[in-house]
Design a protein that fits this description.
Layout lengths: L1 E6 L7 E5 L7 H7 L17 E6 L12 H9 L5 H9 L6 E3 L10 E4 L8
Parallel strand pairs: 1-5
Antiparallel strand pairs: 1-2, 3-4, 3-5
Length: 122
Amino acid sequence: MANITFTSPTMHGPKTVYAVAGDTKTILAVAEEHRIPIPFDCKDGNCASCLIEVTYEEPSLRKGITLTEKEKAKLRELGKITAQEIQDAEVLDLPPRYRLACQFIARDENVTVAFSGEPGGA
């Protein structure tokens, strides 16, 4: 299981939920299921309104999760990912700090997901 802690200035405090390891729900789907108010518009990686910042409880155990081409393009457009971070994700399996909640799937690592509550702002 993965512990996912959501935090935002729009919430009364952090909220930790459990995600089943191996489940293919995105962070956005998990958030919706638990009534966490991550803003979104398209749910498809086109708009970047669900931008999140992900930190890992155990950074040495973090696992790279494939970045879609849409996600790479949007994160580059927003200035939230560098060419080096993309290469690190693709070659070294090191996930970037910023992701789109509609694209990111938590595996069996404990993560904190921070979001501003404003569309496109992490």
